Amino acid sequence: MKQQLLKVALALAENYQNKTAQPEILDFPQEYWTQCEVIQRKLRICYIKGWTLAAIALQQQYTSATQSLIRRLNHHQDNLPWNSPSVLSTSAREIYTDLDSLEEEFFEFEFDLRNSTLSVTTEPITLESIELGEFLIELTWGNELTYQVIAQQPNPARSDDSVTHPHLQNEDLCEGDGRHLIKQALEQGRLFDFFQIVSNILLTYNSSSPYVSLDEWHGVICSDCGTTNCADENHDCAKCSTTICAHCYYGCPGCDHSYCNSCVVECKTCDQMYCAYCIRQCENCLTNICPSCIYETERCHDCHETLEEEKSEEQKTTEEPAKV
Questions:
Q1: Where in the chain are the domains?
Q2: Spelled out in words, what is the top-level CATH class assigned to the domain 228-305?
Q3: How confident is the model over 175-184, as pLDDT tens digits?
Q4: What does pTM read for this prediction?
Q5: CATH ID of 2-26+79-214, from 2.40.160, 3.10.110, 1.10.150, 3.40.1000
Q6: What is the pLDDT of residues 218-245, one digit of tens each?
Q7: 225 Cβ contact list (under 8 Å, min separation 6)
Q8: How many other C-beta atoms are found inside a 10 Å radius of the C-beta of residue 272?
Q9: Which residues pair with 110 in a beta bridge?
Q10: What is the C-alpha separation between 249 and 145, in angstroms, rounded?
Q11: Which residues pair with 280 in a beta bridge?
């Protein structure tokens, strides 16, 4: 084990030396930029068409996409050679000492020379009584030093399964005030400090900037109004299976099932909302009529009255004596 650890330390020390000799400009995060543009175009169409519900969902996606873009742009800017301080010379001995300390400090410690990865696993994390499980912090070295944080027993927010921690989305950590500390630790080869800083961020909850707040962790987004509510207070549409809150759902009087706004039809006569399975149509004008308002002639009130008048006129004409 010690010999393998020394090999990792030598490989990392060589990587730092190469970075000092040949600084490189990272690729611009074009895919994150493009994702924001695509969502923005869809939002504009929703605003023009008046598609309010679709716009609410896209607004949340746009917020997450722009946050990811900002983090990537900050990372890109921090690593520009003319903006970054020169990387300090880091010896294999110093790195070896850090690696040896990581093995003692963390729940699990692993390395993979072939794939140039180094990882630790935190102990199970619980924030405000919500169990989030263990997290793998994996550092990859090569052309650049990058890392990702992966939930090992994911307990994601119910409203967004890509959020496995209030400050973690798609394995991308929102570093907040720790961004510069993480950057400096990686630049200076202080790997023990790096893993400790990331671990401490995971153990901390900042209520002012979560992807999903802990108060809403088990909540569900209403597809009609966009608010997040406790799962017990919501209903599933019996037709399209979307989730609607207690304020937005419609209970069909015909079948007593719950439906969202898009899956109910208003009765022309009584203004009651019925599902598409229970609503009827006037045989004459094809307007929507509920079972309680439709006449035995399968017509709405106006069409039924018109039909009765026509029948009455025909009867009068039949009963009148023929003129000689």
A1: 2-26+79-214, 228-305
A2: alpha beta
A3: 988 988 998 8
A4: 0.60
A5: 3.10.110
A6: 877 777 776 776 666 678 899 988 888 8
A7: 56, 245, 247, 248
A8: 17
A9: 119
A10: 49
A11: 289
